[in-house]
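Revision sheet: structure tokens.
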Amino acid sequence: MLSEAWFFKQEKPINQSEIPAYTCGDISPLPINKDEYQALLPDPYFSVGSESFSWWDQGSNVSQNFELSYRLGIPTIGGNMSRTSYSQARILNELTNDPIKVPDLIQLLKKKDSRPLLVVESKKDDIHEPRAKLTHWTKDAPIVFENADYRLRKLALSSFDTIVAKELATLAATSMAAPIATLKLKKTKGQEGWGYENVINVDSSFTGQRVVGYWIDASNPDIVCAITQIWLYDGNYNVVHHIGEGNRFNYTQYGDGTKMYISTPIDMKPGVVKMVVRVSIGNQKESDVLDIGELSIR
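Predicted:
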């Protein structure tokens, strides 16, 4: 201990220096009554720190939200951490789901604080990931302030119920079209190892923009990070299109327990005669079990 103290004394003192990227360039007051709101809600959404559910920084909207949070003295729902627990990440990221259920996070907020959220709708140029947008919740919220960089909207918690009711009524009136095909995936050891897959013959009626969807019990982060792959083949067995993407970007609904609905858009090219679908987790073993529901193509 004495030797450590001696070495420490010989070290050159480390002085903290200001990092411009993490300071507020503008600290002037905004014409917003901060006491009227309980939290900021970033749009597009960001949630950094989970290896399962996460949406990254787009166009520096993370810094934009933190700066506004500092200026207004209001916390932000968006998080930027080194680690976020699975359960917390799951509940936080339900906001990006289709508006057919009021997110559990909003239900929790209602019990603690009835004040509205202040939406920070970024106008940054580098907004490139539409799946992180919260437009389905925020587009009709009244604008309370706007400048060249962002719009601030007042989003009442009760509006979530209104939006869900309207969406469900629309779905009931239009009656979702029956799938053009269904498929049950089977555990198989293919060229890429173990996974769940199957093949379906297709014809010209499949051509166009389609969505491949299924329910999966995402009981742990590995399953959230499972990959859905789709191959389209022509009559000469040539691959004309392939898509492979993590389910962590294509979940659109939460179901009972830890179930999630995965929706993968696919462009069904003309001349395609066969489609192969495969779902697998990293380094999947024969003993690994994935609870996957019937797959539908719409």
